[in-house]
Design brief:
By secondary structure, this protein is α+β, with helices and mostly antiparallel strands. It contains 4 helices and 3 strands. It comes from Nostoc favosum CHAB5714.
Length: 129
């Protein structure tokens, strides 16, 4: 099951990059998704995937809320924080974590450190005390 989720994630990224749903592009996308390394060695669990997909569903309304907050009340301050990656994350789940953080308007991942940290830029309304 997790292998199918990896395939779907890779195809989704391919279609977002190409924006082409022709038969030839679908065949190319499936070929590339199957040829990319790491599909068989990933030890992700279905539970992790479902949790992340649930977080994505929650992040969509959160992104709209944050966008309206920024429009209605100026956010003049910025912070950069280091957030730890959850243990045992595979590259696919790290990508989804980065996507979740970057999806909302107030945060963006600046850098992923191989030691297990995300460098996150925040836009805030008030200075942190």
């Amino acid at each position: 099951m997790v292998g199918y989720l990896n395939l779907i994630l890779r195809l989704t990224i391919w279609f977002l990059l190409t924006a082409d749903f022709s038969v030839a592009n679908i065949i190319i996308g499936i070929s590339i998704a199957l040829l990319l390394p790491g599909g068989k060695t990933a030890k992700e669990s279905l539970k992790d995937w479902l949790r992340v997909l649930g977080e994505i569903v929650v992040a969509i309304p959160q992104a709209y809320i944050e966008a309206f907050q920024i429009i209605l009340r100026p956010h003049k301050y910025e912070d950069i924080t280091m957030e730890q990656v959850k243990p045992g994350r595979t590259p696919g789940l790290v990508f989804l974590d980065i996507f979740l953080i970057t999806f909302t308007p107030k945060t963006i991942v600046l850098k992923y450190h191989e030691a297990g940290w995300y460098e996150v830029h925040w836009v805030r309304r008030r200075r942190k005390v």
